[in-house]
Amino acid sequence: MLLTRNGRSVARDDVPTLGLDDFRRSIVTRSALGDRVVALFGAPAEGGRTALWVALADDHEGELHLARTELEADEYPSLTPEVPDAHLFEREIAEEWGIVPRGHPWLKPVRFSSPRRAGAKDAFGRAGEPAIGITDFYRVEGEEVHEVAVGPVHAGVIEPGHFRFQCHGEQVFHLEISLGYQHR
Question: Cα separation of 158 and 130, whole Å?
């Protein structure tokens, strides 16, 4: 991994390309040392493939660790079970690039949009036009449990989104957030 500091520019070619196993091992190891994933995203690579890029922050030292890998297939072993920070990033990669993080504990759309690559299906089996606001929400069941839905537009929220609270009295058991209603 390339070591740098916040606010410094780095040439793309200086970021090392690791094999997938080394890429995963580096992320898991750095995470176990206390680093956090601040970016994990897909980008086009040569030959029509997709590259995954990662930035991990060591907050105590003020350092960033950067790396990338080029995927040979449209799936890879999910990082989320070992590195919870990767959860939302992997969901977005699946949505935007149609790449499945195998073993992801709760893979579902982030923004409800179609994949970028023309003619491709996304990781959820969707193709074509976006289906805004269509999803399966997590549900907490029970006689005393109630659901409070807020949004997509609410006076107390700057970015339009939908929020579902699963509550028992004043205790919130689960909050599910769906952002991206203005995603372009």
Answer: 23
